[in-house]
Amino acid sequence: MDLLAFPFVATFTVITVLIFGLLAQRLLGVRLGLFRLLLTGAFALVVGPMIMYAMMGQFTIAPGEFDQSQGPVAFWFALLGGVCTILASMAFLVVIEAFVPMGSLPPPLVWGRGLFARMRRTRRYWQIVGIAMRHGLGSYVRGTRDDALDAPSGRSQLGRALATTLNAGGVTFVKLGQILATRRDVLPAEVAAELSRLQDDAAPVPWSQIEPVLVSELGAPVEDVFAEFSPQPLAAASVGQVHLARLHTGAEVVVKVQRPGIRPVVERDLDIAARLAARLDTGTRWGRRMGVRALAAGLADAIREELDYRIEAENIAAVAASANRQPDVVLPEPHRALCTEKVLVMDRLDGTPLNRADQVIEERGLHRDELATALLDCLLRQIVLDGIFHADPHGGNIFVLDDGRLGLLDFGSVGRLDGALRDALQRLLVGVDRSDPLAVSDALLELVPRPDEIDQQALERDLGRFMARHTSGPRVSTGIRMFGDLFRVVADHGLAIPPEIAAVFRALATAEGTLARLTPRFDLMGNARALASGYVEEQYSPDRLKQAATEELAALLPILRRLPRRIERIASAAEHGRLGINIRLLADERDRAVLRSMLHEVLLTFLAATTGVMAVLLIGTGGGPQLTDEVGLYALIGYNMLVISAILALRVLAQIFRRG
């Protein structure tokens, strides 16, 4: 090819490809990306010449010579060939949309850019699969040991295999296992008990790697921001580590610094965990029963929140701003100007972690029951009254301060409840305290998404047996066992605990272990029910009721002033026989849009079917003028109508595949 002609040929080819792609897009009524547009046009460019050759071959006298006398007829056949070419490109596009819908694959540029990242992820994926196989999790993944999970020993064995696999998987999987261990609302108790043994210990990162993170996040050298900074970490975990420091103002602070390069590792492992969860959800009965896909998504969200220290600073500020703060419980004050995604600076609380504070409590003569009551009161006020609460109150996150008060740390994981859930939770706790199964069932059905069909009488009987077991007579049941039995009742009736309420029970179960270490005789559930009843009494005290009534009356006053006039107009219209009701069907634009789309598709389907039937009748009808030796006028019209029918049918199919 002449080099001078090549640019013109290339330009003409690209323009032709775009024209065919745009025509197919317009006739199908869908919007295509540039890659699909070019691919569709290129397909038309390939098959077009073959279709035209098949159409125009009958008008060829010799190679390269056409019968000039058949010019008008050849024009209509050429036009039909062009339309068939567009039809073929439309069919090609519909097939692509059926098997590879728009958006199911990333754009080519993104796909190419992430090729090496996918290769690393694939290598890591098979590494995790190999770890799972080596530690005995393979048979559970394949679903061949589902029947063994019906027995407690089988569930314990699954828990041990899962715990050893997660422990060998590294940072992210250990974190997943720790959070998973607190989800006794979805996991069997035996599995959760095995996962609770996972420890989030890690070797500290050297100062030479931590200092660049501080400089990058704070935008200044460490000595410019802090008057003193200890390079030796006070504590180290899988995600970050804590250092002691002092600001130039003289304030003693602790600085939590995220490990360098931890986010890409966590994101890659979370993606792998999501894929494994999808495999378990579709391939195993126990995976579907536990809802591992949704569970993995929730755990991933929790871990991503912990990777952003700004969220923790906001959580501390939100809990500290509560109107129900207790003077006996202290929260560290974050220095918001110094808090970034990877660095958290907050006031230092001088004290000892509760899980190592036995000697301190004895030396200072602190009352264990008073400390336990203050801690439980603080947590319950956060849950029942404030709606934002510490979701992980284990002994390492609670300090006994030097002045005898308690300090709460690590607000990377918090729970939130809206007003409606808090009211229902209060009624649930009060109903349990009063052993009222009717009140408990009503409150429980407000807490959970209510299914279309439920046997409420059977639910009340099961809740009555549940309360007879745990609230009557000597209270020997632990909170964990009580929550487990409650979750079992909920699951037996097809109900699903919302994540917010599951976080409440998880926090209380964690708090029970902390309180049991502080004072083994402490009755968590008994004290919780008593405190919750006290909160309800506080809210419904005469002064509170008077204030609430005054606020409601002030809000209703404008409505009450207009009410007599409206009643009078309604009565007058009824008296004179002019009372009517005006109902507007399909008043919502969304409803009209759905109905309009359905009508369009039905109409197009009807037209396609009608045109197709007429085309077949015309093609099979003899007589009429003969355009060529084999094709008559009626047949040519039928072929054109058949193309139109196919275009209409493909348009309907494209809309269906695009939505589905």
Walk me through this protein's architecture:
GO terms for molecular function: kinase activity. This is AarF/ABC1/UbiB kinase family protein. InterPro entries: ABC1_dom, Kinase-like_dom_sf, UbiB_kinase. Belongs to the protein kinase superfamily. ADCK protein kinase family. This protein is α+β, with helices and mostly antiparallel strands and 660 residues long. Among the domains are: 126 residues, no CATH class; 189 residues, no CATH class; 32 residues, no CATH class; 69 residues. It is built from 26 helices and 13 strands. Strands 3, 4, 5, 6 and 8 form a five-stranded antiparallel sheet that branches.
Q: What share of residues is helical?
A: 55-70%
Largest sheet geometry = 5 strands, antiparallel
Q: Total helix count?
A: 26
**How many strand units?**
13
User: Structural class given helices, strands, pairing?
Assistant: alpha+beta
Attribute tags:
5-stranded antiparallel beta sheet, extended, 660 residues, 4-stranded mixed beta sheet, single chain, alpha+beta
Protein topology:
Blueprint: H1 6-28, H2 34-56, E1 60-62, E2 65-66, H3 71-99, H4 108-113, H5 115-134, H6 138-142, H7 152-169, H8 171-181, H9 189-195, H10 207-218, H11 222-225, E3 226-229, E4 235-236, E5 240-247, E6 252-258, H12 262-283, H13 285-290, H14 292-306, H15 309-320, E7 329-330, E8 343-347, E9 351-353, H16 358-364, H17 368-386, E10 388-390, E11 398-401, E12 406-408, E13 414-416, H18 419-433, H19 437-447, H20 456-470, H21 479-492, H22 499-518, H23 524-539, H24 542-575, H25 589-620, H26 633-659
Parallel strand pairs: 7-12
Antiparallel strand pairs: 1-2, 3-5, 4-5, 5-6, 6-8, 9-11, 10-13, 11-12
Helix pairs in contact: 1-2, 1-3, 2-3, 3-26, 5-7, 7-8, 7-9, 8-9, 8-14, 12-14, 17-22, 17-23, 18-19, 18-23, 19-20, 20-21, 25-26
